[in-house]
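QA checklist item 7 of 12: single-chain prediction sanity check.
[x] sequence parsed
[x] length recorded as 582
[x] structure emitted
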Amino acid sequence: MNDQANVQRLLENPREILGLEARDPRRAEAFWHGLSRAERLRAVLACQGSERLRLIVLAQDADTLVRQLPPDEFLATTLDVGPDAADALVAASTDDQLAYLLDITGWQGERLWPQRYQLWLPAIVEAGAERIARWLAQTDVEVLALLFAHWFRVVKFLTSHDEQEPPDDLPGFTLDGVYFIEFRQKDMQDYASQVLVVLKSQTPDRYTQILEAMLWESAIGMAEDALILRAGRLADLGMPSRAEALELWAAPPPKEAAWRALPTKGETGFLADAPPRSDAALNLLPRDHALPALARALPQGARDRLRAELAYVANCGVMALDVDPTDLEAVARAGREAVGLVNLGLELLSDGDRSVAGQILERLGLAALARQGAQAIRQLNARAWRLVNEGWLAQAPGGLHILDEPLDRWLAGLLFPHPRCYDQLMGDGREYRGFRDQADLEHARRGLDLAEFWGELLGLMGVAIDQLAQLSPELARGHQPLELKLTAVVGTFLARGELGLSGLWPIPAALAPRAVAALQRGLAQWRERRAAESVEALADPAKAEMAGQLLRGVLGRIQRDLAAVDASKVDPRFIASLVVEK
């Protein structure tokens, strides 16, 4: 038997047993079988992919361990290892597990996709006649008929007084002299013929029913029926419909915010029999966020209930965002967005108090928390739309693109159909992700505040919004059109002032070197004096702070743009801080 300290260490880091197996297989096997089946199942769930499979096959009761996996965990395991390595998993699977795998991976949106469905057929066939027969028995006639139609064509021949022998032009494969089959795919012929043999020998009536459906039933009608039946199976196994999944983004009813009046989940028996699950959904978020941190402190039963809820929420993200469930990276992104909504809603309702957040988790469902998070994001989305379509940006050349980075990125993210959080640290050419916590929300809100305030600040500087069109780059520059940015607006405004020019127009080309030199001389003084005057003109401390931040930022960009420029040799077309006449 294993001592409790070793058991606990294994459950926290089950990779240790795999390392032990590499060094001492006999000791590893003895240690592994010294655990209870429940402990081994939890250790399996704590791993992923090939490591999970290695732990399973190490067990003498591997088939039982596989069958104890919830359908979504079975799906994740088989997708991680891939069709070529999933023979043992498919062979040991329950009918529900295999149906879930095929219903999720064998469809593209709402359409059966035979090429994807049949990826798992070799593993089913390799498992033997009994597994093939069980799959055939639990699969809808409509699905089998559509799948078979992709594999082969059927011709029916019935003997008559005039014709006792089948004609020579019939396909060459038949099991009964009535239905003759011409295979369309050579690479699937061996597998398909084995399926047909089992179907004919085990359930001859079902064999006839399916082939008759292929001959006489409408493919469109069968596809519609198959879709309805699939939806029912998926709902029974915890996968939401798309309409149900979109409820995460719906407006929350008032009672969901009044969580203190709700009974605890334990009192209502909510998910009382939730099976063990992995931390895959929790691991989509950083460990220091409220939701993962609280989950780690929960007792085992409560944590299983939370994991089950999170699995549902992650599936909502996959369904609502129309993600291909076989694209593991896209599935993780969709799940992360949905789980991030939960974490955001939890932080908002608890106002960052972890003890209060724990009480909320005891009472309020995770879908309700996601709605709270989505509502906060939606409020920013509405403000962003008003700014772009009705505010000062509606009159600005290029709209939101007149903003400098990163304000233009923050605002653009808030305008997406599913508003996105701008994150310049993501890498791999990506800039946006889902919102995850209050910090994300506050950064977005701050960016929106600054973007809204820029219109007021321009007015304080003496720049009318309708004047901005006079600096439109396609009218002002001869080299190539460039986006007009606020840095160029402010730089041009300052340069004209230093040159004694009134109004807001492009700098005359002949004066461009003087404008650059004047900016280089006067920029430091302007930053100290004129910026301070603009800030002091604001009675509202919050606006004064924003004005200071914006002016320091834009003047800093101008200074960096001109730092290494030789004013006597400058080509004004390549000065980003000025708009120069053609």
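[x] summary fact logged: The longest strand covers residues 421-427.
[ ] second reviewer sign-off
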